[in-house]
Amino acid sequence: MxxxxxxxxxxxPLLALAGAVAGTWAALPAQAQRxxxxxxxxxxxxxxxxxxxxxxxxxxxxxxxxxxDGRTLVFSMQGSLWRQDIASTEATQLTAGPGYDFQxxxxxxxxHIAFARYVDDAVELAALDVASGDIKALTRxxxxxxxxxxxxxxxxxxxxxxxxxxxxxxxxxxxxxxxxAGGQVWPERRSSVARYYxxxxxxxxxxxxxxxxxxxxxxxxxxxxxxxxxxxxxALSATATPLAIRMEETTWKARPAWSPDxxxxxxxxxxxxxxxxxxxxxxxGGGDPIPLGFGEFDATGARWSxxxxxxxxxxxxxxxxxxxxQESVGGARRKLDTQTRHYxxxxxELRLSTLDGAGRPKxxxxxxxxxDGRAYAPDDAWMHADDGFDRRHSAFxxxxxxxxxxxxxxxxxxxxxxxxxxxxxxxxxxxxxQVAAGETRKVDVTLKPLALPPNWRAQWLGADVHVxxxxxxxxxxxPARLVRQADAEDLDxxxxxxxxxxxxxxxxxxxxAAPDPASTDSxxxxxxxxxxTSFWGHLGLLGLNDHYLIPGFSAYANTAAASLYPTNAAVxxxxxxxxxxxxxxxxxxxxxDPLAPGALTDELPVDVALGKVDxxxxxxxxxxxxxxxxxxxLLNCGFRPAAAAGTDAMAxxxxxxxxxxMNRVYAMTESAxxxxxxxxxxxxxxxxxxxLHAGRTLATNGPLLGLTVAxxxxxxxxxxxxxxxxxxxxxxxxxxxxxxxxxxxxNGKVVRSIPLTGMRMSxxxxxxxxxxxxxxxxxxxxxxxxxxxxxxxxxxxxxxxVFFGAKEAASxxxxxxxxxxxxxxxxxxxxxxxxxxxxxxxxxxxxxxxRTARAIMSERR
Length: 861
What we know:
12% of the residues lie in helices and 35% in strands. The protein is mainly beta. It has 9 helices and 55 strands. The strands form 11 sheets. The protein has a 17-stranded mixed beta sheet that branches. A 5-stranded mixed beta sheet has the order 2-3-4-5-26, with no helix packed on it. α8 runs antiparallel to α9.
């Protein structure tokens, strides 16, 4: 997962790189063309509120509410509103765009349904006339407006909006002929505490009305360091004093619902557990909550029936989303079974098969835009969404799903466009198909492999070293499904890094020293760990052979883990003792400046100097060229962390940084391509990790690269005579998208730009370079701008370095060493001043590591 805010290592502005890395980049990238979804929200980290708070496009239901009669439900599904009698198995579509409709709430008189509509780069509120089907806009402020709730008298609506501030606040408005007339209920308030992930300004989320319409219960976080906060009760007056009802970390998903009798409040909580379940507490506050359900899945978005006898909620117990009904007394539960869907428009059926060259089904990733301009997926598939997009190319982010090779969809009649991916070794396929009303259209798409050098794909096995199988998302993932996700992306290995989300670890039950039994002959699944500390930087631990490291983080202010110890160096020792590899993950968004004021606490140069770091995510949830520039400085100083890549994909998210394998690292293993196959998954894992450790790697989000120097692959060390030598190199480029730059880099400087012609997706090259002393050589490919078929900042790939040097040559790197020495001095000053150590021994151990690393780095100057 990404770093915690505000303890980033890169608080300073970008600066020109000095020394041996100078001139490597003409300019650091400008990514104005690819921007986050709903960029008007002003929060320091979008990754969690977007998935866990904002509505998501899902094939299954995402929100539900009762009609006033208590016998009918309205729910959002596939970006539309639907109604269904709870005694029926038939659902009727109520809306069909434009855009995507979410979060319905039925007016007390039964005549209207308020909902949120995502279209035109904003989320606005609208009201549906149930009888006529007419839709009326309620807001037109171009902000993000969500969670509309009718007042008990049906004259007002409470909702959450980012209007004017960019922060989530509760608004209340009266219904008028022109929409909602009202505004923010309470003035914005700034908390005095530093926060992780959250704005300095308090938010208010998920309002629910008191039965008399005079008060709201909502979620807020005044003076909370961590999380979304607890449940608060407050009258509808700007000067009203809030009353704390329940204080706990609610992780965006509490969605409180005030009971019709006014005495209780229903909400979702993970208190003491790994998953959200339904809980109930007193509306007056001061009471102890009790659970209304149990299970290793999420139960969220609960709503009372008008008479309080039933509860409807969203469950991901089946992996995807479903509506369940529970009796308030006795707790009997049943799923709302939808067997028949009645659509507003004429529809047809699309049967899509993705095939290999022999006509056999092949798993793939698929995006489908129908004639109405909206995205569709099979009813039983997981719909995923990209986390950003270029407004010049699309009105919405790309939505996609994974298929095992055969997919069946119901689509509006008319022309639909298809895009099909299978990892980085196959061409991206595009099709336009005509879907006729009432008919079935069969489409076969044959996946075409790239023309890679013979045996390359057999010799180089691709892995995503940074995936989180479950992390508080919309869906509930399993090892078997994660393996299928990886297979659709043509991954050979996937590392599920088990990690805490606040006080819970959703995937802890799956942690094992052995590879997961769900592994197949095609995909190997291994469970590792991401070790969290907002202070020192995050570590990936691959191949732990005994146990998960607890508590999993350090330097968390205002907790029992506030001490700076264990340092990352100490954690690396614990991991190495278990035979694991240790890497720095998602390293840098901006170039750190050791001479600038502000926080700079990333332990990377200390741990690299001490020999604790085996790999480095050159590609990850960070800025790739900036991360590479720091890596080049380390290589210049004679250190050799292997190039790796990890997506940091939360694989159970609907709004996904991903997909799984978007950032991947290929490693050349000893037996790959020899015809020897390991049935033993432990041996397969260890062999792949050995390839990573040896640096026989390629890190990429799209382009595939090959490089040999004097016949040796990346990671090799070549002897050079004292007088120098001419080293011959050769390599290739194959890419699923056009490439702007293909370059040979030596000691941080571009020594050859390889011209690309035609489609700029393929090249073979060879050459030689004169070398003396010690150094390194690699090949990289990159683009200055994003490409819509790669869901990342921009296409980028790099081989690991091939190292060369005369035996007697020393590793001196001048200004690069001074750069790291200044960095280490900053770390030493901060660590020495810290007062949160538990013991004097912890303080001395921390400072001793820093002093030792400084001495090693001084020798490189």
